[in-house]
C-alpha cells in the first residue's frame, strides 16, 4: 500500500482510500470527545446542589447564580486553550493536541469531585472549584478544533459530512450520559443524599475514564500530513479571503448554536427551578432531548453528504425558528410530561440537524494549515461569549420578568441570527454531490 510519511515522531499514515483509518479515527476521536464533554457538562446538571455545597447563601437564587457563574468561568479560558492547543495541532499534529486536552480535562474533574464543601474548608472550596473550571475550559477549548479537523481529514470526501457529524453527536451523547446518570441517581437516592454527595458520584464517573481515554487517543494514527481531496467552490487564489469570510459567518452560526445548545442543556435546572416538576421528570426531559439530538446530528451529517451543505443548514433552521415559541408555550402552560418530553424532543430533532452540515462546511472551507486552530478559536470565542452567559442570563430573565417563556425569546433571536449567516455560507460539498442536486427536480 502506498504510504506517505509525516514529519519526525509522527507515524506513517495510509492514503485517503484506507477505510480502516476512517473507522478508527471516528471511533477514537468520538469516544475521547464524549468523555471530555461529559466531564465539562455534568456540572450544569447539578448546578443547584453544587451551589449549595460551595456557594452557600441565605437566598437560594443567589446561590444558584453563583454556581452558574462558576460554570461560566469554564468559558473564560476556552479561547486561550483554543489558540494554544489549536495552533499546536496545526504544527505538530492532531493526536498530541487531543491527548493533552483529555488529560487536563480528566484531572480537573477529579479536583471538582473531591474538593470538600465550603463548610469544611471555607473560602478555599470555591477557589478550588473555580480553578478546576478554568482548567476544564482551557482543555475543552483545544478539543473541538483538532477533533473536527481530524474527523474531516480521516474521511473520504463523499463521507465527510457523516464523519464530522460525530463531533456534535458526541457532544449530545455526553449530555445524554450526564442526564442518564442524573436520572439514575435521582431515582435511587433520596433528595438529601443526591444534594449532599450524589453529584460527586456523577463527577467521579467522568474522572475514572482518564486511563482509558489516554490509551485510546495515544493509539490514533496522525492525519495532519495526510493528502486530501480539494474543496470545490473555493478558488485557490481566493482561499485566504474565503477563509476569513467563512470564519466570520462561522462565528455567528456557532454563537447561535451555542445559545440554543446551552439553553436546551439548562432544561433540567429550568424544569426543577421554574416549572417545579419532579427530579425524575426533569432529568428525563433532558435525557430524551439529548437522545434525539444524537440521531439528529448523525442524520444531519448523512443528509449533508447527499443533498449538500447549504440545503441541510437552511431548511431545518427555518423550521426550528417557526416552532420554538409554540413548543415553549406548550411546555410552560401545561407543565406535563408529554409537553416537556415531546415538545423538547421535537425541537431538538429539528434544531440539531443544520449544525452537523455547518460543522463539515466550515472545516472544508478552512485551509488545512490553519484548520485546527481557526476552528478551535472561533468555536471557543463563540462559546466563551455566549455559552458562559446563556444559562445565567436566562435565569436572570426569568427572575426579572417572572415569565417562563424567557428561554424561548433568547432562542428565537439566536436562531434568526444563525439563519442569516447560513444563507451566506458557500457550498463546499464535493462536485459529485453538487452535480447530483442540480440534476434533481426542484
From TrEMBL:
Primary residence: membrane
A GO MF label: symporter activity
InterPro entries noted in UniProt: H+-coupled_symporters, MFS, MFS_dom, MFS_trans_sf, Sugar_transporter_CS
GO cellular component terms, semicolon-separated: plasma membrane
Residue ranges constituting the Major facilitator superfamily (MFS) profile domain according to the UniProt record: 25-429
Keyword rRNA-binding set for record: no
Keyword Membrane in record: yes
Keywords of this entry: Cell membrane, Membrane, Symport, Transmembrane, Transmembrane helix, Transport
Annotated TM spans: 37-55, 61-85, 197-216, 246-267, 279-300, 312-331, 337-360, 372-398, 404-425
Compartment(s) of residence: Cell membrane
Membrane topology category: Multi-pass membrane protein
Family that this chain belongs to: Belongs to the major facilitator superfamily. Metabolite:H+ Symporter (MHS) family (TC 2.A.1.6) family.
Protein name in the entry: Citrate:proton symporter
Annotated organism of origin: Bradyrhizobium lablabi
Amino acid at each position: 500500500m502506498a504510504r506517505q510519511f509525516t514529519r519526525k515522531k509522527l507515524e506513517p499514515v495510509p492514503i485517503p482510500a484506507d477505510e480502516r483509518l476512517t473507522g478508527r479515527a471516528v471511533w477514537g476521536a468520538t469516544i475521547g470527545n464524549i468523555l471530555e464533554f461529559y466531564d465539562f457538562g455534568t456540572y450544569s446538571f447539578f448546578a443547584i446542589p453544587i451551589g449549595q455545597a460551595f456557594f452557600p447563601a441565605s437566598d437560594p437564587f443567589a446561590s444558584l447564580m453563583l454556581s452558574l457563574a462558576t460554570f461560566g468561568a469554564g468559558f473564560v479560558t476556552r479561547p486561550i486553550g483554543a489558540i494554544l492547543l489549536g495552533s499546536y495541532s496545526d504544527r505538530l499534529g492532531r493526536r498530541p493536541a487531543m491527548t493533552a486536552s483529555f488529560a487536563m480535562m480528566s484531572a480537573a474533574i477529579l479536583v471538582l469531585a473531591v474538593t470538600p464543601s465550603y463548610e469544611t474548608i471555607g473560602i478555599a472550596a470555591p477557589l478550588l472549584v473555580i480553578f478546576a473550571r478554568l482548567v476544564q475550559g482551557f482543555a475543552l477549548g483545544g478539543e473541538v478544533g483538532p477533533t473536527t479537523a481530524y474527523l474531516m481529514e480521516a474521511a473520504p470526501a463523499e463521507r465527510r459530512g457523516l464523519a464530522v457529524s460525530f463531533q456534535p453527536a458526541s457532544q449530545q451523547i455526553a449530555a445524554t450520559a450526564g442526564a442518564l446518570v442524573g436520572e439514575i441517581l435521582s431515582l435511587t437516592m433520596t433528595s438529601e443524599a443526591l444534594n449532599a454527595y450524589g453529584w460527586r458520584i456523577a463527577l467521579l464517573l467522568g474522572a475514572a475514564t482518564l486511563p482509558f481515554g489516554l490509551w485510546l487517543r495515544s493509539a490514533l494514527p496522525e492525519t495532519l500530513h495526510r493528502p486530501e481531496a480539494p474543496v470545490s467552490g473555493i478558488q485557490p487564489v481566493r482561499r485566504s479571503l474565503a477563509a476569513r469570510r467563512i470564519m466570520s459567518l462561522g462565528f455567528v452560526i456557532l454563537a447561535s448554536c451555542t445559545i440554543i445548545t446551552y439553553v436546551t442543556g439548562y432544561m433540567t435546572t429550568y424544569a426543577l427551578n421554574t416549572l417545579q416538576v419532579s427530579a425524575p421528570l426533569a432529568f428525563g426531559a433532558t435525557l430524551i432531548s439529548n437522545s434525539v439530538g444524537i440521531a439528529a446530528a448523525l442524520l444531519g451529517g448523512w443528509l449533508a453528504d447527499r443533498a449538500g451543505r447549504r440545503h441541510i443548514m437552511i431548511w431545518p433552521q427555518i423550521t426550528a425558528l417557526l416552532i420554538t415559541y409554540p413548543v415553549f408555550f406548550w411546555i410552560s402552560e401545561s407543565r406535563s410530561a408529554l409537553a416537556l418530553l415531546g415538545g423538547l424532543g421535537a425541537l431538538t430533532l429539528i434544531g440539531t440537524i443544520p449544525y452537523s452540515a455547518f460543522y463539515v462546511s466550515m472545516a472544508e472551507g478552512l485551509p488545512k494549515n490553519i484548520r485546527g486552530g481557526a476552528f478551535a478559536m472561533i468555536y471557543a470565542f463563540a462559546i466563551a461569549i455566549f455559552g458562559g452567559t446563556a444559562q445565567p442570563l436566562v435565569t436572570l430573565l426569568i427572575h426579572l420578568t417572572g415569565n417562563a417563556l424567557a428561554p424561548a425569546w433568547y432562542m428565537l433571536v439566536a436562531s434568526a441570527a444563525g439563519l442569516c449567516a447560513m444563507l451566506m455560507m458557500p457550498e463546499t460539498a464535493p462536485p459529485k454531490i453538487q452535480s447530483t442536486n442540480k440534476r434533481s427536480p426542484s
